[in-house]
From TrEMBL:
Pfam family, one: DUF808
CC per GO annotation: plasma membrane
Keyword annotations from UniProtKB, A to Z: Membrane, Transmembrane, Transmembrane helix
Record's protein name: DUF808 domain-containing protein
Spans traversing the lipid bilayer: 71-100, 151-168, 174-196, 230-250, 282-303
Native species: Pseudoduganella umbonata
Length: 310
């Protein structure tokens, strides 16, 4: 589950960096000619600007993640002490949101017109043309979305951790939750930062000169070639992870679903038994996301209609 949570977080950050890369591509195009269509562009053509755009995005989400933990740890302890019955419903609401976010990504091309995509592209062009634009501020709303995803995933992990220390003294519960919160944030976002800077490491290695540098240069070229493919793969896996994590929360909160999946897994043998729960979680996640998106879309249209009439 921790791996799925990491992928879901990387997916949201990769979505933000898609626009950052698109901006860099537009800027580089003015001096370097036509570039390819990959969202993660050639590091050599944007050397000197990527660090100023990628790492602040990851840092902004990491800071938001720390704020989430500062809220979640005392909240989890308080809810566990005074309203333990509320933990499962709150987690299910969060799981439904994850499913909604994942399904919205899938449905994007059907819900957003070509004009909207062109307007967004024009916004990126305008941002690149204005050197005073703070690119992190431009992506502020998307960063907030990544922080919201982090909040839900962090809540799930902290609740699980709280369950493992339920029988120990309160002071030990606090110490364990704080240690997990800090370790999660540093570990997850340190790894994310390393992934998004992989192309810059590759660029550094390709520029090494002198005797014995043939192997490092070859490794650097490999990193440059692999970086955009890895980010795309992680983005796809991250969307799947949203359904898996969100669906898992929903199924665990609905006993009849959980028992049905367990029965199906037990009847499937060793291989199918190991795969079935994950597939079932994804299916439940997709269905939940579709339902929530439909409700949100209908309610949104109704509210806009009422507002226009008023």
């Amino acid at each position: 589950m921790a791996g799925s949570s990491l992928l879901a977080l990387i997916d949201d950050i990769a979505t933000i960096l898609d626009d950052v890369a698109a901006m860099s591509k537009i800027a580089a195009k003015k001096t370097a000619g036509v570039l390819g269509d990959d969202l993660a562009l050639n590091a050599q053509q944007v050397a000197g600007v990527k660090a100023d755009r990628e790492l602040p995005v990851v840092w902004a989400v990491a800071v938001g993640s720390m704020k989430n933990k500062a809220i979640l740890v005392p909240a989890a302890l308080a809810i566990s002490a005074f309203a333990p019955w509320a933990i499962t419903p709150l987690l299910m609401i969060g799981g439904a949101y994850l499913c909604f976010e994942g399904f919205e990504k899938l449905a994007h091309k059907f819900l957003h017109s070509k004009e909207e995509d062109e307007a967004h592209h024009a916004e990126l062009v305008s941002a690149v043309a204005n050197p005073q634009v703070d690119l992190v501020a431009l992506e502020k709303e998307k960063i907030k979305g990544a922080v919201r995803t982090d909040f839900i995933l962090s809540a799930e992990i902290i609740v699980i951790a709280l369950g493992t220390v339920a029988g120990v003294p309160f002071s030990q519960q606090v110490a364990v939750l704080v240690a997990i919160a800090l370790g999660m944030t540093v570990g997850v976002y340190g790894l994310v930062a390393g992934i998004v800077k992989m192309d810059d490491a590759g660029l550094y290695l390709t520029q090494r000169t002198g005797a014995g540098m043939a192997v490092p240069r070859a490794i650097g070229r490999g990193l440059l070639a692999a970086a955009p493919k890895l980010m795309k793969l992680l983005s796809v896996l991250g969307t799947v992870a949203m359904f898996m994590v969100g669906g898992s929360i929903i199924t665990h909160g609905a006993p009849f679903l959980h028992h049905a999946i367990e029965s199906a897994a037990a009847a499937g043998g060793p291989v199918l038994g190991a795969i079935t729960p994950h597939v079932a979680d994804i299916v439940v996640g997709v269905i939940t996301g579709a339902i929530v998106l439909a409700v949100v879309t209908v309610v949104g249209k109704m509210l806009r209609g009422i507002k226009r009439k008023a």
